[in-house]
Structure formats: structure tokens, C-alpha cells
Write a structure and sequence with these properties.
0% helix, four-stranded antiparallel sheet, mainly beta, 56% strand, single chain, three-stranded antiparallel sheet
């Protein structure tokens, strides 16, 4: 679980039934995005401006998602 620096988003990692990360918008009180991975997410971090989310996985994958277009 990780809050974005601006407090707008909450990222939640799941390992069952699949490896995914859900992005929750605190102001909308709703999930606004879902990212899937083929292996377990071991770390996640937001950029300082809260527009990017970086995921690292056990499979040594690195994903960067841009949320600047979500309203």
C-alpha cells in the first residue's frame, strides 16, 4: 500500500488471484486504474508530482505508469 505524495491516490498490490495493482482515487472514492503483472510486485513508488507510478516485480520487471490523464 502506498499513498501518492499529493494524497490523491492510493496504490494497492494484490497477489491473489493474480498479481495486480489497483489505483484508488481518494477524491472520487473509486478505483480508477488496474495494472497487471506476470509476477509478484515487490515495490512501488510514486513520482514526486504523483503523476507516475513505478512497479518492480520478482521477475525483475520494471513498469512505469503515467496517471496524468486520469481525471
Amino acid at each position: 500500500i502506498k499513498f501518492s505524495p499529493d494524497g490523491k491516490y492510493l496504490a494497492l498490490c494484490y497477489t491473489y488471484p493474480d498479481f495486480s495493482v489497483l489505483l484508488y482515487d481518494m477524491s472520487k472514492n473509486a478505483f480508477v486504474a488496474r495494472m497487471n503483472s506476470e509476477s509478484k510486485v515487490i515495490s512501488l513508488d510514486f513520482s514526486k508530482d504523483s503523476k507516475l507510478l513505478r512497479l518492480n516485480t520478482e521477475g525483475e520487471d520494471l513498469f512505469v505508469y503515467n496517471f496524468s490523464g486520469i481525471h
